């Protein structure tokens, strides 16, 4: 099986694939202090929850990440398992489609999102990834990643608000029933969750207009995708594991080439 790893700035998603089928998925905090030993122990624990043995079920590792020090630690985990590590980036450029002034600047997670969007939902497509940042990734009608938008993520915005406004306690990230908040908690949830949904709606509409393709498939992904999706009709699909599936597809292409 393939262990796919999506290292974000806040959370790391892990998926165990049997072919192209996702068998299990987990999330863990992205801690830059983690060593290869700690990652190895955590991975052992996750697999034992389901009666699996690491050395027996993982025969390949592929990852996309924005944290260089953890990339090296995951490489070491792969070496200990005696398996090959596929790293999404320059080494996989031959099996991905990127039209950008400087392709090396494009985040590996955005490339994985674009590949998964084209492969599983068709092109053109727009991916809205709700993570530490809210990334919008655009796939043109020919299946190429061509750019997008990056905005502060929902949780970052909430943390900044509560840190700077002394009267506001930490508020749970839930979709409110109404835009007019009758309490402080509801008002913050309206501004944060409904505001993020409205931003996504506005940017998606502008991108569709620029593409000249109002039929472009819009996919929500990331840890907070479901929360925001309750507040808008902008998304055709909510796929929390899109990035992992893109990593898996890139690995498949590398070994089919």
Category from helices, strands and their pairing: alpha/beta
Kindly, what is the distance between the CA atoms of the first and last residues, rounded to a whole number of angstroms?
Answer: 19 Å
Low-confidence stretches: none
Order of helices and strands: EEEHHEHEHEEEHHEHEH
Mean pLDDT: 91
What is the alpha-carbon Rg in Å? 19 Å
The backbone outline, from C-alpha atoms, is: globular
Counting DSSP E segments of at least 2 residues, the number of strands comes to 10
Q: How large is the share of residues in beta strands?
A: 15-25%
Placed side by side, the strands forming the largest sheet appear as 3-2-1-4-5
Largest sheet properties: 5 strands, mixed
Q: How many DSSP H or I helices?
A: 8
Helix content: 40-55%
Structural notes for this entry:
The mean pLDDT is 91. The relative contact order is 0.16. A hairpin with a 2-residue loop joins strand 2 and strand 3. Strands 3-2-1-4-5 form a five-stranded mixed beta sheet, sandwiched between helices. The protein has 257 residues and is α/β, with parallel strands linked by helices. It has helices spanning 36-48, 54-57, 68-81, 108-121, 154-164, 184-211, 225-229, 242-256, and strands at residues 2-7, 11-18, 21-29, 60-65, 85-87, 125-130, 133-139, 145-152, 217-221, 237-238.
In short:
By secondary structure, this protein is an alpha/beta fold. It is built from eight helices and ten strands.
What keyword list fits this structure?
257 residues, alpha/beta, five-stranded mixed β-sheet, globular
